[in-house]
Amino acid sequence: PLFVALSGPQGSGKTTLVKELVKELDQRVGLKAVALSADDLYLTHAEQVILANTHKSNTLLQYRGLPGTHGISLGVQVLSHLARQNEHINNSVSIPCYDKSLYQGRGDRMDELHWKTVTGPVDIVLFEGWFLGFRFNWNASTQPNWNDILSSRSESQSGSQPGFTSICTQDNLIQVLNSLVEYNQQWYPFIHAFIHIITPQLDWIYDWRWEQEQTMKHTANTCNLNTMDTVGLSRVQINDFVDRFIPVYRMCLPRLISN
């Protein structure tokens, strides 16, 4: 199958677009497309707790979301199985599912009983994730302006709040960016084409991610998807959550867009 990676900031509509594309490709041109999200490849809650405790000094690794918080081997397993899906008529692939509403919004991978099973030939795999296509090559001769990368967010969002320097250090960020090497080496070789949704202002992500959280909580409570507390994250927690992504966007987006 053709593997297409779709990236864009949280709340930019990646998941919705992929769902619509799956339907349109089937109904209009008779192509079978499979949706895969990098979000569904996050570490389990237990694994994330271990990661956070192992790197207590790195605030960027305390919760899911950033490079380094995904199951790389799980991703390779799913991608490789999808790549071989058409080799035999009886092949099937299990697609993981991650429930972000569990553990009061911190999330956990769902039991395999709830994973989606793909059977039969596949024409296209639509792989979406906010950072897909990001690369980081450390070069001491072309060091970035760390003051700009770690500076405060705009006044409309921050007010009197501290800037990004209070959330992460240069070393914290470099550790996360270095994690991209694994994705580059193990996930990207499967991908034939990358598409990125450009967002004019990164500040919009704060509101988009909050809207996303509200929708997730409403859906989880309405459908009674689980028996655990689905209160989710508060607006303050969402802002804190998004804060941790902005320095990575600032480091990687210019190169991605220019290329």
From TrEMBL:
Gene3D superfamilies xrefs: P-loop containing nucleotide triphosphate hydrolases (3.40.50.300)
InterPro entries noted in UniProt: P-loop_NTPase
SUPFAM superfamilies, A to Z: P-loop containing nucleoside triphosphate hydrolases (SSF52540)
Gene Ontology cellular component list: cytoplasm
UniProt xrefs under PANTHER family: URIDINE KINASE (PTHR10285)
Protein known as: Phosphoribulokinase/uridine kinase domain-containing protein
Organism expressing this protein natively: Batrachochytrium dendrobatidis (strain JAM81 / FGSC 10211)
Taxonomic classification: Eukaryota, Fungi, Fungi incertae sedis, Chytridiomycota, Chytridiomycota incertae sedis
